[in-house]
Amino acid sequence: MRRCLISLREVPDGTTADPAAVRGLFGIDDLPKVDIELAKLHTFGLAMVGRRTLSGVQRKISLGLDVDRTTLQVAVAGRQYVLKPPSETFPDLPQNEHLTMHLARRCGVEVPSFGLLPMADGATAYIVRRFDRPDGGGKLRQEDFCQLAGKMPAEKYDASCELCARLVLRFASEPLIEVRRLFRRVLFCWWTGNGDMHLKNYSLLADAAGRHALSPAYDLLCTRLYLPDDRLALPLGGRDKALTARHWRDFAAYCKLTPRAAARVAAELFGVKDDLVALVHRSFLSSELRQAYVAGLEARAPVVGELARDGAR
Ligand SMILES: Nc1ncnc2c1ncn2[C@@H]1O[C@H](COP(=O)(O)OP(=O)(O)OP(=O)(O)O)[C@@H](O)[C@H]1O
Ligand SMILES: [Mg+2]
Questions:
Q1: What's the number of domains the chain is made of?
Q2: Does one domain contain both 156 and 123?
Q3: Which residue's alpha carbon is at the smallest distance from atom 8 of ligand 1?
Q4: H helices within the chain, ranges in order?
Q5: What are the residues whose beta carbon lies below 5 Å from ligand 2 (ion)?
Q6: pLDDT higher than threshold 70 for residue 38
Q7: Alpha-carbon dihedral of residues 210, 211, 212, 214, nearest 10 degrees?
Q8: 3-state secondary structure of 262
Q9: Is residue 137 part of a domain?
Q10: Do 91 and 204 share a domain, yes or no?
Q11: pLDDT digits over 43-56, tens only?
């Protein structure tokens, strides 16, 4: 079976992407070319400050379509995409992010358009549409939680999930709606074995009217595939591992969610578990990594299920 590099849907032999998915991500009929070779990318590299997990290992770059709309280039105005090429250290990192974004979307987490893209040197990169540069509009203001907390970038691990909740409750225009979105995201990231959700991986985005909401999700990965003993980047209830349903109930209360509302979020995640497993199997990860991904989901599913059943009480 051949799968679309963007949508993961089945495509006919000899095809790499479903035309509707290409149009949705790029607004053109054929996959664009990338005018940079992987080997040269480091000269454009942005932040690469390694900390205790995968942070910064992925080089990334902003790109836009050229005037002919066939090639993604660095030197164009209004660059609307972020491209993340493979890492030399961690296998299938772009495929991992691509899959995890699909899982997030299935779990009701808002994500921008994203896909995989073949590069000039044959490697596969992850590409995502920038959510802070809407079509035809000016750049939207994005503030990550490190900035909101008044911390230096190097202090991005020096926090907790409770601090994230406080920041949302304090700075979002609709605090109770946004904190529920945060709760869903934190639960999703824990379920998918993401040990790198530090303060810079959450942001508030201001719309044109100046209203602040949680930005679409980014930097979603199963870091456990590479660092099996990985812990949460930010502790929840004072713990960074071995969380039980009780810890999630306490966190939900901290987020001012009613037990029913928290159970509903958990039920929405737990209810699509079979779809998540199916998506892992359709993904472009190696079969070994697919198995490890599913094993992680299965291992933590009982806690999500227990939380979901609170709603039935
Ligand atoms: N789709 C997007 N639209 C707009 N901004 C984005 C998008 N994706 C990422 N960013 C911004 O770019 C920054 C770097 O992206 P990302 O976190 O995905 O890369 P990273 O190299 O894995 O980061 P790190 O390892 O430092 O956490 C983010 O902190 C965010 O501010
Ligand atoms: Mg990041």
A1: 2
A2: no
A3: 218
A4: 19-26, 93-106, 145-148, 161-171, 175-191, 245-254, 259-270, 273-282, 287-309
A5: 201, 219
A6: no
A7: -120
A8: helix
A9: no
A10: no
A11: 443 333 333 445 55
Ligand 1 site, residue 132, Cβ cutoff 6 A: yes
Q: Which of 129, 156, 186 is the last residue of a domain?
A: 129
Q: What is the pLDDT of residue 44?
A: 44
In this structure, are 148 and 264 located in the same domain? yes
268 and 292 together in one domain? yes
pTM: 0.94
Query: Ligand 1: which of 60, 139, 199 to mutate, most ligand atoms within 8 Å of CB?
Result: 60
Compute, in angstroms, the gap from residue 85 CA to the centroid of ligand 2: 14
pLDDT at 47: 37
Q: Is residue 7 situated within a structural domain?
A: yes
Residue 134 lies inside a defined structural domain of this protein: no
**136-161 residue pLDDT tens:** 677 899 999 999 999 999 999 999 99
Q: Which domain holds residue 31?
A: 2-129
Is 101 found in the same domain as 231?
Answer: no
Q: Which helix (H) or strand (E) holds 301?
A: helix 287-309
At which residue do the structure tokens 């109770």 appear? 176
